Amino acid sequence: MKKIVLILILIISFSSCKSSKRSKRKTNSSSQIITKRSKDYQVKQAVTYSEEKKAIPRTAANTPSKKVSSSKADNIIDYAEDFKGVRYKWGGTTKDGMDCSGLIYESFRAYDVVLPRVSRDMAKRGEKITLKNVNKGDLLFFKTGNRRNSINHVGLIVDIADNDIQFIHATSSKGVMTSWLNENYWLKAFYQARRIL
């Protein structure tokens, strides 16, 4: 009788572990957006997920060792940079795959700025600005030679140095990466810059 009770307890405990693993996977898959929470929860979350840094984009909530960014633009850039190296996936918005407008859409949405999901619609938001007036956090829009000659690519400015602009974006060949606007391909395809924040 003791053996049967012991076996039942083991079976129940193993099945409990199995279900908790499933719930962790659900947390890390498609719902990776982390919203603002109280300071107590942020510290607890950073400790809880410290071993899973690759699965959750970095934000103030789960980066205790990094200095918290001072502006919304810096926070959005930090969030976007956590997707570096993620493969390209048309329509993608997660670490499993990301497209250019998905990267921008999710990065801004993580900080309560809702944009349209498609780059050509994003280009209708905010204020059009000249390249000499851009700041970190502004958006660059491109026409990369598609048949309709419309805006079909977007990038987020992450740095301005040596009279050049660095932006993060998702390319079909290399996934999420940073590029410089003065690269021939991007300079020829550039269409406009816009300020959302």
Protein model, in words:
With about 200 residues, the chain is an alpha+beta fold. The protein has a domain at about 85-195: endopeptidase domain like (from Nostoc punctiforme) (endopeptidase fold (from Nostoc punctiforme)), CATH 3.90.1720. Helices cover about 35% and strands about 20% of the residues. It has six helices and eight strands. The chain has helices spanning about 1-30, 40-50, 70-80, 100-110, 120, 185-190, and strands spanning about 95, 95-100, 125-130, 140, 155-160, 165-170, 175-180, 190-195. Strands 3-8-4-5-6-7 form a six-stranded antiparallel beta sheet. α3 crosses α4. The relative contact order is 0.13. Residues about 10-65 have low confidence and may be disordered. This is C40 family peptidase. Keywords: Hydrolase, Protease, Thiol protease. It comes from Algibacter miyuki. It holds the Pfam family NLPC_P60. Belongs to the peptidase C40 family.
Walk me through the topology.
Elements: H1 2-28, H2 39-48, H3 72-81, E1 93-94, E2 97-98, H4 100-109, H5 119-122, E3 127-129, E4 139-142, E5 153-161, E6 164-171, E7 175-180, H6 184-189, E8 190-195
Helix pairs in contact: 3-4
What is the structure about, briefly put?
By secondary structure, this protein is α+β, with helices and mostly antiparallel strands. The chain has helices at 2-28, 39-48, 72-81, 100-109, 119-122, 184-189, and strands at 93-94, 97-98, 127-129, 139-142, 153-161, 164-171, 175-180, 190-195.
Order of helices and strands: HHHEEHHEEEEEHE
Write the CATH architecture name of the domain at 85-197: Alpha-Beta Complex
Strand order of the largest sheet: 3-8-4-5-6-7
The computed structural class is alpha+beta
Rounded to the nearest angstrom, the radius of gyration is 21 Å
Mean pLDDT: 75
